[in-house]
């Protein structure tokens, strides 16, 4: 957690670089993460808080086969790395305050790391289209005790 502290806080390029480095280290050690006592939910995804403070929260997310998030954007910085399996990320473009159209879809495989600031929009949906579990680590720039989630806005898909 100390390495995620920057003078500029969680809305800076320095923070993104630090979070990216932490994630690269974690995804390079899948056995360590897979040995953690992570909760799982059949058909869905389960968020497991690994660490948190007043500025940052770190979560392991276990994606069961078929698990999917809503289409959403974040109120905070969002960084994630895939530890095992494949998570499909679909990017969207808002057409109004509540509707969005898909623009791109990518398979994020073990070892993949991405970071983004909430200057977006960074609208996306994450899914596990595989037949087994996938695990990802997410570092969000928010206090898990002050906010229930990193999601700011949910969207409905139009087309695609």
UniProtKB/TrEMBL annotation:
GO biological process: L-cysteine catabolic process
Keyword Magnesium: no
Cross-link type 3'-(S-cysteinyl)-tyrosine (Cys-Tyr), residue numbers: 78-140
Presence of keyword Isomerase: no
Molecular-function GO term, any one: ferrous iron binding
UniProt keyword list: Dioxygenase, Iron, Metal-binding, Oxidoreductase, Thioether bond
Recorded superkingdom: Bacteria
Binding-site residues for Fe cation, renumbered to this chain: 72, 74, 124
UniProt record similarity statement: Belongs to the cysteine dioxygenase family.
Protein name, per record: Cysteine dioxygenase
């Amino acid at each position: 957690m100390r390495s995620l502290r920057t003078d500029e806080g969680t809305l800076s390029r320095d923070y993104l670089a630090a979070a990216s480095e932490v994630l690269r280290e974690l995804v390079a050690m899948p056995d360590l993460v897979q040995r953690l006592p992570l909760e799982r939910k059949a058909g869905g995804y389960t968020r497991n808080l690994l660490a948190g403070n007043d500025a940052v929260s770190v979560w392991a997310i276990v994606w069961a086969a078929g698990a999917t998030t809503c289409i959403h954007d974040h109120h905070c910085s969002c960084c994630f790395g895939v530890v095992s399996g494949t998570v499909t990320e679909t990017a969207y473009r808002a057409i109004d305050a509540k509707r969005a159209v898909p623009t791109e879809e990518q398979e994020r495989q073990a070892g993949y790391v991405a970071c983004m600031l909430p200057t977006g929009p960074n609208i996306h949906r994450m899914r596990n289209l595989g037949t087994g579990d996938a695990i990802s680590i997410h570092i969000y720039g928010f206090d898990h005790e002050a906010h229930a989630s990193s999601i700011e806005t949910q969207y409905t898909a139009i087309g695609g």
